[in-house]
Amino acid sequence: MSEDAPRTTHPALTILGGGVMGEALLAGVLASGWAVDDVAVTEPFAVRANELSSRYGVRAADGNAKASRRADVVVIAVKPKDVGAVLAEISGALRPGTLVVSIAAGLPCAFYEQRLPAGTPVVRVMPNTPAVIGQGASAISPGTHADEGHLALTERILATSGLVVRADEKDLDAVTAISGSGPAYVFYVVDAMAEAGVLLGLTRARARELAVQTVLGSAALLAETGEHPVILRERVSSPGGTTVAAVRELDAHGVRAAFLAAAEAARDRSRQLAAEAAAPQHG
Ligand SMILES: NC(=O)C1=CN([C@@H]2O[C@H](COP(=O)(O)OP(=O)(O)OC[C@H]3O[C@@H](n4cnc5c(N)ncnc54)[C@H](O)[C@@H]3O)[C@@H](O)[C@H]2O)C=CC1
Ligand SMILES: O=C(O)[C@@H]1CCC=N1
């Protein structure tokens, strides 16, 4: 870039919680040109904080209140059970207008609005772990005081780690059940396919290599052709062939029904997380 090229300005971003998702978002914005001085992370475990600051060159030494004070956007990336305590810490430190973005599962925007200064703009996000490699999928939903500008800013941040869609807040528990938890289902399927390969006599390494590439290639085929999955499945299924024999077993073992029940369980657990976070803390 020439020295005369206009510099993109980025809002000051503070990520509270430097775990799996906090790091994914951190890596995403830095890879997209955010300067290390524009980004900070907080993390109570010193070893982890040091790891993040040495890996990315960002500030990771401050507590939540201090790090939030100078932020234009605060991203809450702690576990749902820890959000209430974090909000109590930062509520008095936020400058008016600071955007609060939360990725915590289950907790509605109202949870934040009840605990932060009146008028605080809040955007609730459900991302997923492929964000780590820039292949995430996030759904975002505005709180009462978040306007188009706040949504656009959230999109700008999340787009650094993959696809971003807007969703009604009533759908975020369902989004959590599909794309938030979804990577785990895919890893489960890959592991099961690899195990099946071992059953049939393949080496574990060969079976896993083939299973991973099959999932990767199939996902790319879906995305690139835009075809319905049923059409693509039919193209694999020769009359009287191997695939129909296999899919009949998947049906007989209730795999489709298991996915439906799994999604309902994840949605219900997401709702429960909100109830637990709102309940008074014991112990
Ligand atoms: N892991 C996933 O696939 C997804 C997680 N989420 C949500 O993201 C949030 C974070 O999840 P993960 O990154 O998986 O968890 P994690 O356990 O890897 O990270 C949480 C981090 O917060 C730190 N922490 C704990 N208390 C803190 C405090 N008071 N102040 C600052 N940091 C504190 C912990 O030391 C830890 O490093 C959760 O609310 C989860 O519901 C959302 C979508 C996907
Ligand atoms: O399991 C969880 O609660 C988090 C939210 C979505 C994915 N992981």
Automatic annotation (TrEMBL):
An annotated GO cellular component: cytoplasm
Record GO terms (molecular function): pyrroline-5-carboxylate reductase activity
Annotated InterPro entries: 6-PGluconate_DH-like_C_sf, NAD(P)-bd_dom_sf, P5C_Rdtase_cat_N, P5CR-like_CS, P5CR_dimer, Pyrroline-COOH_reductase
Pyrroline-5-carboxylate reductase catalytic N-terminal domain residues: 13-106
Main location: cytoplasm
Pathway, per record: Amino-acid biosynthesis; L-proline biosynthesis; L-proline from L-glutamate 5-semialdehyde: step 1/1
Record's keyword annotation contains Amino-acid biosynthesis: yes
Subcellular localization: Cytoplasm
Binding site for NADPH: 64
GO biological process, one term: L-proline biosynthetic process
Residues covered by the Pyrroline-5-carboxylate reductase dimerisation domain: 169-273
Enzyme Commission (EC) number: 1.5.1.2
Keywords for the protein's UniProt record, in alphabetical order: Amino-acid biosynthesis, Cytoplasm, NADP, Oxidoreductase, Proline biosynthesis
Family label: Belongs to the pyrroline-5-carboxylate reductase family.
Protein name according to UniProt: Pyrroline-5-carboxylate reductase
